[in-house]
């Protein structure tokens, strides 16, 4: 492609509203432009990179036994009502009505559509397993779109869905898809981790996220410093064993603590360690109020509460709801003397607290000398806190460290969550109707593009891995007005294309410094400069990754390019 004939509008200044490297560089290097908040146009260079990522995805999906199809982005509300998600998915689902007042949604995901398709066509176990995928734009009305392609309202996604007659079959395909995803991200050159995750609004269980390690990631990964264990921090179990103090139990005393609401304030006011405080928060668990207790130095994990109750929605109660359930505003809530109608659960660490401190259920008062086995009724103890750095790794090997990650892929075992709700059944070997067992597998294609840029850049611009670069070679004539350079540039462009190289040829009538700066921004792996030695059959070859340059004769050019691209 000749640069004079394509559209690469580079920028010298960093856009004011671009906070992270990938957003800044994809705008500056002319890969994309914003049309509205969280909505972008992919310009020619980005379009090429996306197609290369998609091709890697297709090759691995096809190798894993998945067949490609394409479903509509516009989805009937009736299908979402069948699954129950029309009412629970939330405001991220973009809803609309047609001219006949029929309700539709722009596809945020396609479980309902694919389940209806397979339900209507597959009736026998003989047609299973079946694995189908598509690559398509998705739409989610994010409350706060940010970070460019990492959190947008329209994005490109590969989503796959598998259907099975047995859980053993699901397990087999899940492992194949897990390996396919590992292959995809490895081929894209990414430094990533596959981590245990929560299924969220998708439903189901047994799920992994593929996280690209990056300081700008919105997710925290908990990983072992000596083993391969890794999990999203919200899913990592705590295996710490707590020893109960042997100190003698003290008398329960109500103590005035005027305007001391937070853990830090109460600890300082009463001159006690935070480990002695019992944090008491009210959560709304599927419309039921639950008081959750944790040690003062720990954070309560709402995902673990959700999994404990098998709930659909878990939310921290508002101050008004807290007062309704516990009789007092947050900051003074406590389990001692609590209404028997409210369920009280506690993290394991709380069980070891002797002579603790908790809210007294009365404004401006706390109890000291609290011993839960004597002073309150806890319905059950469970693992309810977030794991912390330094905790023992859940696999028993090493200790936990934290890292930030960008989620680029997610694989789920959905089970019968959608097939039962939507009556997607098959006849088994005995002629009995059984619900299909499902799996779901997603890759954020446009997010993967941004994640690659986050890991591959320097102070001059993008540094693309060869597998996904928009072109392999950036051919530049330093002075297009000079006949010898222009002539050799045209000759090399034709020869390199004939030899099978992907070439962007900067034939513009522009200063050499501008061309070199644009080339660094764009980030193509190999740069060839036709300059002052053109008449001698010598060109400069520069590797973008290392910045190393060398003079190369035309006879050695093809071999040099091939060698650099294989590094």
UniProtKB/TrEMBL annotation:
InterPro entries recorded: aa-tRNA-synt_IIb, aa-tRNA-synth_II, aa-tRNA-synth_II/BPL/LPL, Anticodon-bd, Anticodon-bd_dom_sf, Pro-tRNA-ligase_IIa, Pro-tRNA-synth_IIa_bac-type, Pro-tRNA-Synthase_IIa_type1
GO MF terms held by the record: aminoacyl-tRNA deacylase activity; ATP binding; catalytic activity, acting on a protein; proline-tRNA ligase activity; transferase activity
A GO term (biological process) for this protein? prolyl-tRNA aminoacylation
Checking Gene3D superfamilies in the record gives:
Anticodon-binding domain, Bira Bifunctional Protein, Domain 2, YbaK/aminoacyl-tRNA synthetase-associated domain
Swiss-Prot/TrEMBL keywords: Aminoacyl-tRNA synthetase, ATP-binding, Cytoplasm, Ligase, Nucleotide-binding, Protein biosynthesis
Q: Which reaction does it catalyse?
A: tRNA(Pro) + L-proline + ATP = L-prolyl-tRNA(Pro) + AMP + diphosphate
Q: Which GO terms describe its cellular component?
A: cytosol
Compartment(s) where it occurs, according to its Swiss-Prot or TrEMBL record:
Cytoplasm
The EC number of this protein is 6.1.1.15
Ranges for domain Aminoacyl-transfer RNA synthetases class-II family profile come to 52-465
> Which Pfam families has this protein been placed in?
HGTP_anticodon, tRNA-synt_2b, tRNA_edit
- What domain of life does the UniProt record list for this protein's source? Bacteria
Membrane-crossing ranges are none
Does Protein biosynthesis appear among the keywords? yes
Notes on the domains: Consists of three domains: the N-terminal catalytic domain, the editing domain and the C-terminal anticodon-binding domain.
Q: What does this protein do?
A: Catalyzes the attachment of proline to tRNA(Pro) in a two-step reaction: proline is first activated by ATP to form Pro-AMP and then transferred to the acceptor end of tRNA(Pro). As ProRS can inadvertently accommodate and process non-cognate amino acids such as alanine and cysteine, to avoid such errors it has two additional distinct editing activities against alanine. One activity is designated as 'pretransfer' editing and involves the tRNA(Pro)-independent hydrolysis of activated Ala-AMP.
Q: Which family does it belong to?
A: Belongs to the class-II aminoacyl-tRNA synthetase family. ProS type 1 subfamily.
Quaternary form? Homodimer.
Q: Per its record, how is this protein called by name?
A: Proline--tRNA ligase
Q: Gene of origin?
A: proS
């Amino acid at each position: 492609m000749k640069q004079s004939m394509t559209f690469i509008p580079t920028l010298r200044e960093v856009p004011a509203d671009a906070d992270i490297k990938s957003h800044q560089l994809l705008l500056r290097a002319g890969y994309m432009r914003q049309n509205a908040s969280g909505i972008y146009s992919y310009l020619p260079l980005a379009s090429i990179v996306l197609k290369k990522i998609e091709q890697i995805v297709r090759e691995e999906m096809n190798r894993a036994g998945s067949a490609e199809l394409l479903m509509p982005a516009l989805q009937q509300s009736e299908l979402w009502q069948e699954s129950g998600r029309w009412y629970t998915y939330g405001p991220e689902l973009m809803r609309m009505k047609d001219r006949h007042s029929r309700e539709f949604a722009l596809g945020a995901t396609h479980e309902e559509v694919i389940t209806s398709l397979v339900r209507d066509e597959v009736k026998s176990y003989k047609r299973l397993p079946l694995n189908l995928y598509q690559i398509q734009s998705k739409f989610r009305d994010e409350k706060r779109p940010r970070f460019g392609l990492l959190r947008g309202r329209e994005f490109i996604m590969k989503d796959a869905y598998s259907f099975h007659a047995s859980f053993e079959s699901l397990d087999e395909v899940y492992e194949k898809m897990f390996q396919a995803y590992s292959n995809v991200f490895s081929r894209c050159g990414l430094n990533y981790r596959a981590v245990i995750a929560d299924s969220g609004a998708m439903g189901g269980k047994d799920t992994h996220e593929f996280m690209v390690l990056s300081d700008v990631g919105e997710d925290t990964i908990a990983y072992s410093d000596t083993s391969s264990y890794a999990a999203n921090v919200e899913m990592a179990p705590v295996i710490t064993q707590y020893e109960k103090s042997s100190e003698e139990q003290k008398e329960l005393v109500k103590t005035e603590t005027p305007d001391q609401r937070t853990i830090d304030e109460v600890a300082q006011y009463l001159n006690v360690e935070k480990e002695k405080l019992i944090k008491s928060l009210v959560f709304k668990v599927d419309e039921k109020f639950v008081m959750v207790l944790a040690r003062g130095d720990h954070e309560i994990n709402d995902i673990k509460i959700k999994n404990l109750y098998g709930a659909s929605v878990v939310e921290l109660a508002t101050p008004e709801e807290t007062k309704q359930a516990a009789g007092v505003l947050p900051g003074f809530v406590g389990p001692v003397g609590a209404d028997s109608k409210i369920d009280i659960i506690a993290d394991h660490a709380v069980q070891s607290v002797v002579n603790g401190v908790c809210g007294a259920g009365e404004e401006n008062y706390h109890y000291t000398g609290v011993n839960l086995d004597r002073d309150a009724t806890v319905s059950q103890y469970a693992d309810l806190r977030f794991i912390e750095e330094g905790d023992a790794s859940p696999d028993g090997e090493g200790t936990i460290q934290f890292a930030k990650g960008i989620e680029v892929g997610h694989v789920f075992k959905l089970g019968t969550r959608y097939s039962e709700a939507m009556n997607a059944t098959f006849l088994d070997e005995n002629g009995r109707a059984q619900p299909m067992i499902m799996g779901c597998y997603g890759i954020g294609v446009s997010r993967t593009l941004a994640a690659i840029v986050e890991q591959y850049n320097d102070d001059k611009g993008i540094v693309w891995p060869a597998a996904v670069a928009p072109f392999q070679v950036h051919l530049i004539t330093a002075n297009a007005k000079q006949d010898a350079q222009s002539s050799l540039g045209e000759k090399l462009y034709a020869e390199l294309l004939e030899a099978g190289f992907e070439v962007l040829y900067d034939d513009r009538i522009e200063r050499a410094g501008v061309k070199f700066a644009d080339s660094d921004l764009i980030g193509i792996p190999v740069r060839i400069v036709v300059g002052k030695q053109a008449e001698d059959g010598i060109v400069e070859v520069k590797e973008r990754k290392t910045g190393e340059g060398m003079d190369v004769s035309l006879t050695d050019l093809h071999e040099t390019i091939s060698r650099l691209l294989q590094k």
